[in-house]
Amino acid sequence: RKEVERLIKLFNTLASESRDRFAAAAGLDRNMFRNILHCTFGMMDDMIMDRVFRAFDKDNDSCISVVEWVEGLSVFLRGTLEEKIKYCFEVYDLNGDGYISRDEMFHMLKNSLLKQPSEEDPDEGIKDLVDITLKKMDYDHDGKLSFLDFEKAVRDENLLLEAFGPCLPDIK
Questions:
Q1: Burial of 133 (0-12, 13-18, 19+ CB in 10 A)
Q2: What one-character DSSP code corresponds to residue 160?
Q3: Homologous superfamily assigned to 1-78
Q4: I need a surface site. Which of 20, 31, 88, 93 has the fewest CB within 10 A?
Q5: Is 19 exposed, middle or buried (0-12, 13-18, 19+ CB in 10 A)?
Q6: Is the dihedral of CA 162, 64, 61, 79 positive or negative?
Q7: What is the C-alpha separation between 153 and 148, in angstroms, rounded?
Q8: What is the pTM of this model?
Q9: Rounded Cα–Cα distance for residues 162 and 169 (Å)
Q10: Nearby residues of 117 by Cβ (< 8 Å), 6 or more positions away
């Protein structure tokens, strides 16, 4: 109860700052939320931060309400493995069709991997990584990851939870 009360108090403080800065409705706008993800949780990837915002914004009104804030942080910080699997899958399913496609994997990995200067075409290395990932996680061999594929792969190997980019806070 005390944690929820603190989260609500923090939300009210942040939401009032958001209103002052951006004249937003009662809640956190995308810019304020991304700033929190970056400054508090060290997230750097713009696409992942945008997807995390969408995962929190359940009613899709471009604003995080106090309920969405508390429920989202509950999973984000203290969620069970099952809750985190659902959350990460939602973040990675860029078009919301219930699958993580080869193109979605490529796009996320391209954004989240550090770019190294080399002679090789970096896109080729990413394509190879997508192929390896599909071999490891695509249990029904349909060329894309369903929620069931993703869930089974993560249960077999927990490190695969954030296979396509960091969308959960680290232990700190």
A1: buried
A2: G
A3: EF-hand (1.10.238.10)
A4: 20
A5: middle
A6: positive
A7: 8
A8: 0.87
A9: 11
A10: none
CB-based burial, 48-84: b 16+ in 10 Å, e otherwise: bbbbbbbbbbeeeeebbbeebbeebbebbeebeeeeb
If you count DSSP H runs as helices and E runs as strands, how many of each does the chain have, helices first? 8, 2
Nearest CA to 158 out of 83, 56, 49, 85 is that of 85
Token code pair at residue 152: 């089974």
Please list the helix, strand and coil fractions of the chain in percent, rounded to the nearest 5, in that order: 65, 5, 30
Fold match between domain 1-78 and domain 81-171:
yes
**CA separation for the pair 64, 71 (Å, rounded):** 11
Domain residue ranges of the chain, discontinuous segments joined by +: 1-78, 81-171
pLDDT tens digits for 45-77?
899 999 999 999 999 999 999 999 999 999 999
